[in-house]
Amino acid sequence: MSMAKETSRNIGSIVLLGAPGAGKGTQAKLIAARCRIPHISTGDLLRENVRRGSELGREAQAFMSRGELVPDMLVCNMVAHRLEQPDCERGYVLDGFPRTAAQAGWLDALLQDRLFDNPERLKGTPIVIAIEVPYNELLRRLTGRRTCPSCGRIYNVYLQPPRRDELCDVDGSRLVIRNDDREEVITERLKAYELQTKPVADYYASRGRLHVVDGNRAVREVTADVWAAIENAVAVSEGAKARGTHGDFF
Ligand code: AMP
């Protein structure tokens, strides 16, 4: 895909699946920048609500601090509101959503039947990519994760350390460990993933819509595979549109 095409064409919905620490956020940011579509991380949106002390933030906080999933209804309402924003018109990358089979069903219903007041906009099914990483590697990545509280840049003390110990390369702020990156919470988050989020991959796999990518490699190699999956899905959809048939995507 040429850059001009990528930034003007309809990309539609892209869903990145994977355990906490699988690299969804990193890949989502790269896709979003390349296609100029928003990166929508439900974890980031929830943390922002907690910071602002909104009603949603107050309700979500207890679940998040225990490493549990926030109830579906709260998260789905938040996502519906976000997807209504005009910057989602050509597409968006969802990171951390859907996280339960119920959320996946809700998203399909939203995109197929009742997409706000503009039924043609982004109508169809999402491109779903699962990034897979072995459990021990996930643990290592999560316990080493540090975040810059000012610019949001993410480091890893084992894999991608900052140039100066515990300080952000960009703005020099002291790096922090996210509350839910503490070891006991990490175990809970990985458990929640096994129990509740693996069925989301099954949901899409059983419908023949899951692209699996090996995430246990260098970022650029993972990106190449993620991008190939998107390119392929977009080409299939455009081919189907050109033939006037109903494609798998959009
Ligand atoms: P993340 O930054 O994606 O790891 O999300 C951090 C926390 O936010 C999770 O451990 C959950 O408590 C909550 N969360 C994020 N996305 C969802 C979702 N789709 N459904 C339920 N809870 C979520």
Count of individual helical segments? 9
Ligand identities? adenosine monophosphate
Give the N-terminus to C-terminus distance in angstroms.
17 Å
Beta-strand percentage? 5-15%
**SS elements, strand count:** 7
Outline the biggest β-sheet. 5 strands, parallel
Helix content: 40-55%
Q: What is the H/E string?
A: HEHEHHHEHEHEEHEH
Query: What is the radius of gyration computed over CA atoms, rounded to a whole number of angstroms?
Result: 18 Å
Q: Structural class, from secondary structure content? A: alpha/beta
Kindly state the mean pLDDT as a whole number? 87
Which spans have pLDDT < 50 for at least 5 consecutive residues? 246-250
Strand order of the largest sheet: 2-3-1-4-7
Q: How would you sum up the global shape? A: globular
Overview of the structural elements:
The chain is α/β, with parallel strands linked by helices and 250 residues long. It has helices at residues 3-6, 24-35, 42-52, 55-65, 72-83, 101-112, 135-143, 183-205, 219-242; strands spanning 12-17, 39-41, 91-95, 127-132, 145-147, 154-156, 210-214. The protein binds adenosine monophosphate. Residues 20, 42-43, 46, 63-64, 67-70, 75, 96-97, 99, 103, 180, 189 line the site of adenosine monophosphate.
Features:
two-stranded antiparallel sheet, single chain, alpha/beta, binds adenosine monophosphate, 250 residues
